[in-house]
């Protein structure tokens, strides 16, 4: 309950002192709050720097450990690759030798037939071009693919070629086509008949004999292809005596397995033991600074709490003791000085009169 003011001088001085103390406490509270934030950020920054250093250091140490093993593992893998390549090369050589050995009789038979064909052609005077697949296809066809080739040739010569020539003629006209066909038939047909008369008609029996010989060559070539395919598909290495290469590959594989096992063991030991030691050492190095900052933060917060309590207490005192008389608008040292002067000078007998007089003068 508000009590009557007996001593205005003391009242006004008390109000001004309370306001000044409140302002000082508020300023100090703000400063301590900012200081508390700064220290908290410094602690967070130090903790982050510590964790970053732990991460960087452990990653670097782990890389140093694994890089040596990785280098040796890479060398072992390269040794294994080279050993496997040497084995494959040796196996391919053995396969080629096997193919050569198992097809030797067939190749010799083919060589004998070719020699006989050459001698037969020489004896009867048959031109060399007659001993070609194309010649026998067009003059002595007897296989399915011979007739397919003849059909394709007819389509190209008597359909494709005339149309092509017709398109290449400037300002071509449809009337040109019959002449183009006539010329092509005349040339190709004439050449076919002339060659036939000079070779097939004169040496038919010899050419039929040569055709039979060429069929024997084709038969032997097919057998060589089948034998080669069977040998290439044979996955067994036993017959090729590659044990020395297998031993080398096995030795390198064992070395590679041993290196990988040692690498894994080194990584496991680092993760389970060394990493913890490094972490503890780095944290210990920053412990003193963190403890100092933490202690400083605790003291700052304690001071801040004390200042905040005192400010709150003064604020309540001002509200209870002075605001009820002066009103919130006059809780200002300059205005309180003005009210105090009005009462001291006798221009007002109490605070209410002083406030009215002050406001009238301020309003003009």
From TrEMBL:
<keyword id="KW-0472">Membrane</keyword>
<protein>
    <recommendedName>
        <fullName>ATPase involved in DNA repair</fullName>
    </recommendedName>
</protein>
<feature type="transmembrane region" description="Helical">
    <location>
        <begin position="175"/>
        <end position="199"/>
    </location>
</feature>
<keyword id="KW-1133">Transmembrane helix</keyword>
<feature type="coiled-coil region">
    <location>
        <begin position="59"/>
        <end position="95"/>
    </location>
</feature>
<feature type="transmembrane region" description="Helical">
    <location>
        <begin position="150"/>
        <end position="169"/>
    </location>
</feature>
<keyword id="KW-0812">Transmembrane</keyword>
<keyword id="KW-0175">Coiled coil</keyword>
